[in-house]
What does this fold into?
Amino acid sequence: IQQRNQEESDRVLAGLQKIILFNEENPTVARIDDPSVLQSSNPDFYKNAAEGDYLILFPSRAIVYREKDNQIVNIAPIINTQNINQQEATDTSTSTEGTDTGADATQDGTTGAGQTETP
It folds into this structure.
């Protein structure tokens, strides 16, 4: 099964490379079996995803790829909120030294430290 999965991933990536250049190594390739589940979690990104499409995750971007049409359905950057939270914590601690606002400032409006927002 693992070999079959690797062959499928290699085939999908070879097709994708015909329409977009990428040099990131070891992307994660997943076949979309139930697009409604993904659409409920992120309707904007997955709105045109269909059964049999592929989700390819790179460190910096996510791509929905339709192999049968050799078409990119959607592409979006991946935002690492851990780096944002760390930067906010650094900015807050240096600008409000001696106050107790640092912890609150890093939690408001963020997904949470250590999480990565993916489409």
